[in-house]
Specification:
3 helices; alpha+beta; OB fold (Dihydrolipoamide Acetyltransferase, E2P)
Length: 184
């Protein structure tokens, strides 16, 4: 029997989590007008201690890789990728009680369904659905900023959820009650 190759210590495969701010069909412009990037924001409950430990281990490994980039040591002021969702909870209620991160890639990520079948239409994965993410944490030093970033490798859609785009479901928008009101 062939043993699976161990994952690199900076690779994280998440459990199911809410995803938001999806740009998987058309990449968004990168920071400061840079090259377009595919991206997603992952939101995970603070109660998921196993997920937090996976991320913390990958952050530690990325810090070790970054030491040569940062002059041989980890800087005191290091930008870390995990953010406190409670700080955004007033604007984004789905972030309350959670931590979140942004992951991006210059290359289109692989997209599969819960059975591992390729998803050909990227719009099937949207802000509000549940997915697992394959990520790579990496050190960076750019324009005076130093930190750990998250690269987006692949996305596995687990289940549908309420769309968070502010755009309604067409079936819900056009109900029989609306037709009756128009005909009256």
């Amino acid at each position: 029997m062939v043993k699976p190759k161990p994952k690199h210590p900076t690779i994280v495969v998440t459990g199911p989590m809410l995803i938001t701010f999806c740009a998987l069909d058309k990449p968004k412009s990168g920071p400061r007008g840079g090259e377009p990037l595919f991206s997603v924001c992952g939101v995970s409950p603070k109660t998921d201690k196993e997920a937090q430990e996976k991320f913390n281990a990958a952050i530690r490994a990325a810090c070790e890789l970054g030491k040569p980039l940062w002059g041989g040591k980890v800087p005191q002021q290091l930008d870390l990728p995990l953010r406190d969702g409670d700080l955004k909870g007033a604007k984004y209620p789905e972030f309350k009680g959670s931590w979140y991160f942004n992951a991006k890639s210059k290359f289109k990520p692989g997209l599969v369904d819960a059975d591992g079948n390729e998803i050909l239409d990227p719009s099937e994965i949207y802000s509000g659905c549940t997915a697992r993410l394959s990520l790579n944490l990496y050190p960076y030093s750019a324009l005076g900023n130093v930190g750990i970033g998250i690269g987006l490798n692949n996305v596995m859609k687990i289940s549908d959820g309420k769309r968070l785009t502010g755009r309604g479901n067409p079936a819900d928008d056009f109900t029989e009650d609306d037709e009756e009101a128009l005909l009256s």
